[in-house]
């Protein structure tokens, strides 16, 4: 029994560690994007906001603000809504694609975790 609980505890610690890394990737990339937007806003105003809308300007605004919205939503997911929905995400740093989150919480650990928090 002790071995099983030690194994579950080790899995939870490993998941928390990877989640911590994923959260830092989300926070870092979002604030880097916001910084980039802040330093290029003047150029954006001069080149796009003061002229007539064209296909290129619509494409520019779509690319710029959909990306910002996506990253801010990534930050919002870090808000702790409840233990059941917050726990179990893991982050991976992929050199080709960057940071992304996935879940690898086993059923047994999830059932134990949910039953302990309920």
From TrEMBL:
> Which protein is depicted?
DUF6533 domain-containing protein
* Residues annotated as domain DUF6533: 25-68
Lineage, highest ranks first: Eukaryota, Fungi, Dikarya, Basidiomycota, Agaricomycotina
Q: Which organism is it from?
A: Ganoderma sinense ZZ0214-1
Q: Which domain of life is it from?
A: Eukaryota
A Pfam family of this chain: DUF6533
Tell me which InterPro entries the record gives.
DUF6533
